[in-house]
Design brief:
The structure is a single chain. This protein is of the alpha+beta class. The protein is built from four helices and three strands, in the order E-E-H-H-E-H-H. It has a three-stranded antiparallel beta sheet with strand order 2-1-3, with helices on both faces. A hairpin with a 6-residue loop joins strand 1 and strand 2. The longest helix has 13 residues. The radius of gyration is 13 Å and the shape is globular. It starts with a strand and ends in an 11-residue tail after the last helix. About 25% of the residues are buried.
Length: about 100
């Protein structure tokens, strides 16, 4: 059985503060952010809307991609989000 890993981007609101993370259980992880169970940056800045994610079966690839996205200029991140989710809808309910 192959495991699935996710690289995800959360936002506080459209064009708001962004957070990039990696997990093997996207629904659980976003729920933790939404319920403020993750102390720190996301709970402090109310970052709990899932606006983008990618899937892979390779944890190493997921971590490399997470680091790559974190190094990107903000404009590149916004372009990636706009291209895939132009309305900045919270994708959590569709998981």
């Amino acid at each position: 059985m192959l495991k699935t890993y996710f690289v995800y981007i959360l936002a506080s609101k459209k064009n708001g503060t962004l957070y990039i993370g990696v997990t093997n259980d996207l629904k659980r992880r976003v729920s933790e952010h939404k319920n403020k169970l993750v102390k720190g940056f996301t709970s402090q800045y109310n970052i709990d809307k899932l606006i983008y994610y990618e899937m892979t079966e390779n944890i190493s690839a997921a971590i490399v991609r997470e680091k790559q996205l974190k190094k990107w200029k903000r404009s590149y991140k916004l372009a990636l989000i706009e291209e895939n989710n132009p309305m900045w809808e919270d994708l959590y309910s569709s998981l």
